[in-house]
Amino acid sequence: MGSLLEALWGFYTNQVLLKVDPESYAYELGWFSDHGYNDFACVLKDTEWNSDTRFGELLRIEAKSMNVLADESKGHFDELIDRLGNEDLLLILIWTWETVNTAISQQVYPHILDYFIGKAQSVAFLRDALHLARGGSFVDRNSCPDGCAPVICKHHGEPLNANGTRERLSGPNSCRAANVSYAANFGGLVRMIKTDSDSARQEFRRIRASDDAVHNYISFIHRNYPDEEVNQYLAKDWKILAHNLGIQTVGLPKKEIINLIKKRSSNYRDQLRLIS
User: Fold this and answer.
1) Which range, of 20-24, 73-77, 115-119, averages the lowest pLDDT?
2) Half-sphere exposure of 81 (CA within 13 A, CB side)
3) Cα–Cα distance, 11 to 39 (Å, whole number)
4) What integer pLDDT is reported at residue 4 of this predicted model?
């Protein structure tokens, strides 16, 4: 179902582009038919497009979708950062099954609850910084675990977890996990912004404060997975924000403080972003 929703997004986006300026309709989304990373490219209409050289295209878009009630690990963004173009975008659709009653039966349909679209490089930068903060690493061609010659090393930039296990199938063969081919935890769309140490939390906050695309991505995830936001910030952080909003917190538990903050301010995440 996720693949269908992503394809429909591309179809309807082209309809929007057509309506923006029908007389000088200059752009359209092209669909990648292979199984590579990107799903779409924004290309110049009626111009030859070479996907190998990127001639005739402006940017690329990778589409992901997640059923909000399903295991989040199904949504992965694990493309290496040096393979992303400066203007490339990441699209994420969050959806769920909704019930509709007809005269003769009860049916369900996929309902899109929310979406994010922003610079893929920014999200990848956050992902990689927190991977390092958790004790992970990235393969350096000058010291590849497989002993590759630097000029031909195909593993440069591949993520390894804190145990030295490869996170992607294309990682070094000598770094395989014991019971599986690769760990596959790198780039989980929700998991990748979790933090479990002071150093990781500080890195998370530093990047969120400095990059609008990262802030929008984090806000999107926390809006749809509110427990992640509760766990990300400590009780003292919520108390600081509450104080800034003029909310009395003495004797109140963390979750009650958060509820009061949400009632008081619709843009509290913009203020939470500034807490260091």
Assistant:
1) 20-24
2) 16
3) 12
4) 92
- Whether the model clears a pTM of 0.90, i.e. scores above it, the answer is yes
Go through 129-165 and write b for each residue having 16 or more CB atoms within 10 A of its CB, e for each that does not.
bbbebbebebbeeeebbeebeeeebebebbbbbeeeb
Per-residue 3-state assignment (H helix, E strand, C coil) for 22-51: HHHCCEEEEECCCCCCCCEEEEECCCCCEC
Please report, in angstroms and rounded to a whole number, the separation of the first and last CA atoms in the chain. 40
Selection from 8, 222, 14, 220 nearest residue 109 by Cα: 8
Find all residues with CB under 8 Å of 141, minimum gap 6, and list them: 148, 150, 153, 155, 156
Q: How far apart are CA 19 and CA 109, in angstroms?
A: 27
Q: What is the pLDDT of residues 158-205, one digit of tens each?
A: 999 999 999 999 999 999 988 889 999 999 999 999 999 999 999 999
Residues 6+ apart with CB under 8 A from 229: 222
What are the tens digits of pLDDT across the range 204-255?
A: 999 999 999 999 999 999 999 999 999 999 999 999 999 999 999 999 999 9
Tokens 């014991």, located at residue:
178
The residue among 235, 273, 275, 232 whose CA lies nearest residue 255 is 235
